[in-house]
Every structure is written in C-alpha cells, then in structure tokens.
Amino acid sequence: MSKNENNNKHEKNKNKSCQQQNNNSKIVKNCNLECAQNKENGNNIQHEDFVAKSAQLEKENAALNSEIELLKKKLLNTELEVSSLKVKINQVNESFIEKSKELSVKASKQLKDAEEKNAMLLAQEKKNIKMYGNQSFYEKLLPIFISFDTAINLGMNGNNEAVQRFCLGFEMLKKQMENAFFDNGITELVIKAGEEFDAHKATATMFEPEAKKNQVVEVLTKGYMLHDRVIIPAHVKIGTKGEDNE
C-alpha cells in the first residue's frame, strides 16, 4: 500500500472518529436536556402536590381550630354551669344548715316545754292525789258524821239533862273529828239564811212559798268541801214566792 493510500485511510478514519464523537456529544446533550426537562416536570408535579396537600392541611387545620374553639366554648359554658351549681349547692347547704339549726332549736324548745309541761302535770297529778285521794272515803264518812252531829244537836237542845250530859261527851269527840277533818282539808260550807241560793254548794230539798224566790230560808243539813271542791252539798229550804206569776 502506498503512502497516499495510508494517509487517505487515516484521514477517513479520523473523520469517522470525529463524526462519531459529535454524534455521541449530541446524544449526551439530548440526554441531559431530556433529564433536565424530566427534572423540571418532576419538580412541578411535586410542587403541585405540596400545594394541594398544604391546602388540604390548612383546611383540616381550620376545621380543627374551629372544633377546638367550639370545645373551648363548651368547656367555658360547662365551667360556668359548674360554678353556678357550686354556688347553688353552697346556698342549699347554708340554707340546710340554717334550717337544721332552727329545727334543732325549735325541737329543743318543744322538748323543754314538753318536759316542763309533763313535770307540771305530774306535779299537779301528785298534788291532786294528795289533796283528793281520800275524797271517796270522806264522801262515805261525812254523811255519817252529819247524822252524828244532828243527833248531838237534838240531844243538847232537848229537855232531858241526862241526855244533854251524855251528848256533851260526844260533843268533845265531834270537835276532835272536826279538827282532824280540817287538818286534812275538810271544811264546812258557810251558807246563811237570807242569801242567794247557790246550786254549786247546796241542794234544795224543801220549799217555802212565802219566802222570796231562790232565797235560802233554812239550812237543813251541813255541806262540806275538800279543799276547793264541794264533795257534800248542803241541804236547804228555799223560797219560791212569785214563781206562778212568771
């Protein structure tokens, strides 16, 4: 092979190599451009996703904030209600305590009054038993004593001296009995002729048409009291004059 042929061949190979290098550069450039475009497109997609997610998060955050504010209002209202209920409970407790004190004082007073009343009733009952416990005994004894006294008076006022002396001894016994009666609360009813008839002290057993109406004419038998209670009424004669004209 000649020298010229070698040079041509070398030149041809050189041109071929340069062309191949240029082609490779274009491919690399195109690849770089494509990668840059893809990168830019990817960034745009990521940015749009970020914006969309941010908007969604802001929306959700706004909803959460709104719900939080609503819960805060509810909590505040609940706290106000609790505070109001505490005030009412305190008022009820104070009222209950005050009412309890009033009821306690009232109950204590009523108990004290009841005890005093019972003590008074018991004392009065004891007094009544002491004063009037023997009433039935005297109601049976006094009529016998009245008959005894009447017999003595008849004997003393009679004309028989022996009987008068006999009755004089019984007169002393009668005085002793009257003193014993007096010591035990028995007293003779004081009723006099001419005074107004009192049905609480006497019983009218005889009547005088010529005497003034309801006027005591004569005391027939004595009456007796046990302390302030009439247990044996006197028997009296009273006037009835003028009754037919009324």
TrEMBL record:
Residue numbers spanned by region Disordered: 1-21
Subunit: Homodimer.
Gene3D superfamilies: 3.90.20.20, Head domain of nucleotide exchange factor GrpE
Annotated GO biological process: protein folding
Extent of Basic and acidic residues compositional bias: 1-10
Protein name stated in the entry: Protein GrpE
Predominant location category: cytoplasm
Family of the protein in this entry: Belongs to the GrpE family.
Molecular-function annotations in GO: adenyl-nucleotide exchange factor activity; protein homodimerization activity; protein-folding chaperone binding; unfolded protein binding
Pfam families associated with the record: GrpE
Protein's cellular compartments: Cytoplasm
Coiled coil: 47-124
GO CC terms in record: cytoplasm
Cited InterPro entries: GrpE, GrpE_CC, GrpE_head
Keywords on record: Chaperone, Coiled coil, Cytoplasm, Stress response
Its job: Participates actively in the response to hyperosmotic and heat shock by preventing the aggregation of stress-denatured proteins, in association with DnaK and GrpE. It is the nucleotide exchange factor for DnaK and may function as a thermosensor. Unfolded proteins bind initially to DnaJ; upon interaction with the DnaJ-bound protein, DnaK hydrolyzes its bound ATP, resulting in the formation of a stable complex. GrpE releases ADP from DnaK; ATP binding to DnaK triggers the release of the substrate protein, thus completing the reaction cycle.
